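hey m, so remember when u said the tokens were messed up on ur end? i reran from scratch. heres the input so u can diff it against urs
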Amino acid sequence: MGSCRWRKKTVTSGCGYIRRSRTAISVEILKAALEGAKKTHIVYSANLNFDMVNRYLEMLEEKGLLEHKGNLYITTAKGKEFQEIAKELGL
């Protein structure tokens, strides 16, 4: 049988795995948090594990794209702008 290899683009490999870019993952997280979302919701929406989500949430907060209020994460105006730009560029 053939071996499975990861691909850099958002393409399904022969094994059914999908490799997403950091930008694509960030956009999915920001989309999930548009109206406020708990971490568990973001995990399921972005199809990531808690360790990966924690890294992305920290990075998005540092960049000012996401706010943490209580137990909710909320996409900021800057985060919405980032989403629009990524969408226009097809990222």
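this time it looks ok to me. DSSP finds four helices and two strands in the chain. if urs says something different then somethings off w ur setup not the seq
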